[in-house]
Design a protein that fits this description.
2 domains; three-stranded parallel sheet; 48% helix
């Protein structure tokens, strides 16, 4: 029997508890449910969620729990099967499927590291605002980093790929779903700041010896869409 959970990490843990305590079931998330395939909706049971999280940490350690979380964030179409294979290998103590989970973690952590350097904020008046379209769902990992980096200045980071936004009021943060049409206007001086920023970027490059390959290596194209250093035509390359 196929069951689909609600795409949340809590829903995944609840579904895993159900999987390991119920014979002959298959679990998937609603976002990975194949078209034309019927599945029973599996409601998230927070008691199951907490019990399964505690069971992973107690039996295999916090690192294993984190590995499961990173695999969830990868949003891979096979993440549920890969996580189950990983947990089964931990039970057998053979480490057979650990490489897949470690690969997920490496990719997600690498994306987090890159966005810590490439994310660009704009002045929206009473708060700073940034947009991004990351390959993985990494908003939660950027919250504490930028809260400290920006000296507790209120800010919003919008993930346009998932229509979610991280809102930080200077002391606490929350993640909300937002409509894709929501826009945050820049203050009047922000356009001038962006122009000066692009002028600086152009001035430090050697015009007679352009090296676009090196620029793309140092600042990959997928991060340029919302970067202030590049004009619109640069962002669309």
């Amino acid at each position: 029997m196929l069951y689909a959970y609600d795409d949340s990490f809590e829903g995944l843990l609840s579904a895993l508890y159900f999987y390991y305590t119920t014979p002959e079931v298959i679990i998937t998330s609603l976002c990975n449910l194949p078209p034309l395939l019927n599945a029973e909706t599996l409601e998230t049971n927070m008691r199951y969620t907490e019990k399964f999280a505690e069971r992973i940490i107690k039996r295999f350690g916090y690192t294993a729990y984190r590995n499961v979380y990173y695999a969830y964030l990868s949003e891979s179409a096979t993440r549920e099967r890969d996580i189950i294979d990983y947990l089964d290998s931990l039970i057998r103590q053979d480490g057979k499927y650990a490489y897949k989970i470690h690969a997920y973690r490496h990719k997600v952590e690498g994306t987090i590291h890159l966005y810590k350097g490439f994310l660009r904020f704009k002045d929206a008046g009473k708060f700073l605002y940034a947009e991004m379209e990351p390959e993985y769902d990494i908003l939660i990992f950027l919250a504490r980093y930028f809260a400290t980096r920006l000296n507790h200045t209120p800010f919003i980071i919008c993930d346009r790929a998932r229509n979610t936004a991280l809102l930080h009021n200077g002391s606490t943060f929350v993640i909300h779903y937002i409509d894709e049409s929501v826009q945050f206007s820049d203050v009047d001086d922000e356009a001038l700041v962006q122009t000066l920023y692009r002028s600086f970027f152009n001035s430090v490059s050697i015009q007679s010896r352009p090296n676009e390959r090196n620029q793309r290596r140092q600042f990959p194209l997928k991060f340029r869409k919302y970067a202030l250093e590049f004009d619109n035509h640069d962002n669309k390359r």
